[in-house]
Design a protein that fits this description.
Strands 1-9-8-5-4-2-3 form a 7-stranded mixed beta sheet, sandwiched between helices. It is of the alpha/beta class and 358 residues long. The chain is globular and about 65 Å long. Helix 3 crosses helix 4. It is built from 11 helices and 14 strands. The two termini are 21 Å apart. A hairpin with a 2-residue loop joins strand 6 and strand 7. The protein has 2 domains: 222 residues, Aspartate Aminotransferase, domain 2, CATH 3.40.640; 118 residues, Aspartate Aminotransferase, domain 1 (Alpha-Beta Complex). It is 38% helix and 15% strand. The chain binds pyridoxal-5'-phosphate. Pyridoxal-5'-phosphate (PLP) binds next to helix 3 and helix 4.
């Protein structure tokens, strides 16, 4: 029996043909494919601008810098995320301030944000974890009340929505197209915005602060995407709806049949795109035992994330010792099961059977 992987890049002949076309064109670096990918991605998110970059981490750094975040500033974010969110804040010279999460959605608890605001707070950076958006109405209201910038880490939420509005359209949006993400280009990222000034700054930050070739107006990096990546992204975009429908079908199947552990909660008005299907192992059972049981049955599972960001050594060196009870509890309970679009119904049934043996 073949193992069931936790994720698998969905590559068809159209991705292969798109890559060959770029290779044969002789134009490998940022060029016309990237421009087209940006245009279509902006359309998907319902925003005026999309700026393609090398990866999701670069998207976060560019978004923060374009919003003038720097030394002395504080950025409010969640401790229950991939390390890149906090590292991007630190790279700008700003300090991450963590706010605990809601144990049902694993996203930042909007009720707790206001109490974390200080005179140094410059931005709120919510993360739409596992494919479900944060409660953006509440978060937007807090940001507006205090004059704060809003930057969304939508790296796990391409195509997700909240009350009819797309991820990446509430503030400055940041996306990742890493090989395991819902839409992938191997490595890759995107910034989205309706703000002309932020868009222009991101384009400059992406390429050594240039507006006009070899005239440099600010300090920048090389955060550019290759046309090779963009070509894969364009092929993936064409199938995004189908791939998302498949993930939703798979999640629905798991929801209906899993009995032994608590299934994920989807908030009213949220268009979940199921980057991960994450259950909680509690009630006296040990998560590590369940991981072992699944692995022995030939099913790969994931733990995102075993250590919350505020407990990581590199972060504790900056912020000291803080306690986030819900995030710490969830770090001990979460378990992600395969939900990717290439799962067969037979494999879904196997996953359910093994989980329900517990
Ligand atoms: C993947 C991811 C990132 C970073 O993206 P890369 O493309 O790997 O740099 C940032 N935040 C979250 C929540 C992610 O899942």
């Amino acid at each position: 029996m073949k193992r069931i992987p936790i994720s698998k890049p969905d590559i068809t002949d159209s991705e292969k043909a798109a890559v060959m076309e770029v290779l044969e064109s002789g134009f490998l670096a940022q060029g016309p494919r990237t421009a087209l990918f940006e245009e279509q991605f902006a359309q998907l998110c319902g925003v005026r601008h999309a700026i393609a970059v090398s990866n999701g981490t670069c998207a976060l750094v560019a978004a923060l810098l374009a919003n003038d975040i720097g030394p002395g500033d504080e950025v409010i974010t969640t401790p229950f995320t991939f390390m890149a969110t906090a590292n991007a804040i630190l790279f700008t010279g700003a300090k991450p301030v963590f706010v605990d999460i809601d144990g049902e959605t694993f996203n930042v608890d909007p009720q707790l944000i206001e109490a974390a605001i200080t005179p140094r707070t410059k931005a709120i950076l919510p993360v739409h974890l596992y494919g479900q958006m944060c409660e953006m109405e509440e978060i937007r209201a807090v940001a507006d009340r205090h004059g704060l910038k809003l930057i969304e880490d939508a790296c796990q939420s391409v195509g997700a929505s909240y009350k009819g509005k797309m991820a990446g359209s509430f503030g400055t949006g940041t996306f990742s197209f890493y090989a395991t993400k819902n839409l992938m280009t191997g490595e890759g990222g995107m910034v989205t915005t309706n703000d002309d000034v932020i868009a222009e700054k991101c384009r400059m930050i992406r390429s050594h602060g240039m507006k006009q070739r070899y005239y440099h107006e600010m300090v920048g990096y090389n955060f550019r995407m290759m046309d090779l990546q963009a070509a894969i992204g364009l092929a993936q975009l064409e199938r995004l709806e189908t791939m998302t429908a498949r993930r939703r079908f798979n999640a629905g199947f798991l929801n209906r049949h899993i009995e032994a552990v608590s299934i994920p909660k989807v908030r009213e008005g949220c268009g979940h795109v199921w980057h991960q299907y994450t259950v909680r192992v509690n009630g006296g059972r040990k998560r590590d035992d369940v991981v072992r049981h699944m692995n022995e049955a030939g099913i790969d599972v994931g733990v995102y994330y075993p250590v919350p960001v505020h407990k990581q050594k590199s972060i504790q060196a900056v912020i000291g010792d803080v306690t986030m009870p819900v995030a710490e509890k969830m770090a001990g309970e979460v378990l992600s099961l395969p939900v990717h679009p290439l799962l067969s119904e037979e494999e879904l049934a196997m996953i359910v059977a093994e989980i329900n043996k517990l």
